[in-house]
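Continuing from the previous page of notes. For each protein in this section, the sequence appears first, followed by its structure tokens. Read the first protein now.
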Amino acid sequence: MNHLKKILSNVKKGLPVIIKGFSLEALIFIIFIFGIAVYDTFVKAGELMDREILEIGESIPEFEASSTSGTITSEDLKGNWSVLYFFPKSFTPGCTTQSCSLRDGYSNFDQKNINVLGISTDNLKTQRKFKKDKELPFDLIADSDKKISQKFGVLGDLGFASRITFIVNPEGKIAYVFTSVRVGIHDQEVMEKINILSSLKEDKIS
């Protein structure tokens, strides 16, 4: 206990020196990045929402947005199963792990012609860099005006999208909503759910 107190005391003494070494702009930037990392790690889906999240059975709202490969609309998704994963911020730990999980399992989605789209409120330049640096084989939408996040009900009070994934059926209706995401194996849990949903759909048709 005394050893811990000594460490804390040394940190307290050294903190003013550390702060003094940074400009005001740098300190503001550091605090901003730290805040995003905390939000990304600890804020659960559904918290800090300004409206209700879209539910199973609802049609996805119409949208037109800029993506890393050009303009994408909601109509482009019809005809195939789609995965729309909203995430708070590119390059943050949780978002990177989640995106790389979907990247590593992408061949399974591609074989079944399943659309995969990542959506955050980052600008297009950031999304392009994130896609390139992490070698993501799917597109990212730059929802910088926050309109898509608002329409899906995932925009939080802090201005970031919450980590929520929607599975959309070929008719453009929401078939499942992941409000709790296991970022390290998200590709597996999404693929398993689509396999179940598509099997049920086929049984119903037959």
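Done with the first. The second protein uses the same format. Note its length before scrolling.
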Amino acid sequence: MNSADVVIIGAGMAGCISAKLLSARGLKVILVDKLERSPPVFRAEKLEKDQIDLLYKFNLLDQRRPLAEPLGVNVNYKKGKVTKDHSVVQYGIRYHDTVNQLRLEVSKYVDFRVAKVQSIVEGNQNNQSQIVNLTDAEPLNAPLVIVASGYRSSLLKKRGVEYAQDRDLASLSYGFDIERSDKSIFNSNAYGYFLKGGKRKCPLNR
């Protein structure tokens, strides 16, 4: 059995950043994910200023910058007219590129393992440990186990953790490719279309 101070299940942004910070505190961390690399997925395609500030604070922004492009200016249009034009501190990203870059960086400091987690069970009560059972691999043992594999994770359900959906906070994201009829290049590098309170807003980033 492999022992650590902390086992983190899920090597997404939350899991990678948690692993980096806990390792910096001198803790032995094992980071587990069922995939070596994150596949292409559509979500979190932009970093906001507060997220950028945190990555800088955690010394992870420089690892992200080579694959991120500053958006620069945000232009809002309404009924074909510009209603707002202002500078923004944002980066356009691809989520899987970001995660894969973070995995490369974090694996320098923590033990990153590719394995599928079957279950989490209580260990010996005397040492207050938890056992993480893996498919086709030795179990892991740690007093603290962090599940960072998404709020719909079956592991959380097995542990009796349920999630409640707040309809007021729910959102729907969708993406599509567009091109001009004359095939000319857009002078902006990102487009967004938002619905809020029954009113449409369409910010254009460039």
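What the second structure shows: Residues 198-206 have pLDDT under 50 and may be disordered. The longest helix spans residues 13-24. We return to this in next week's lecture.
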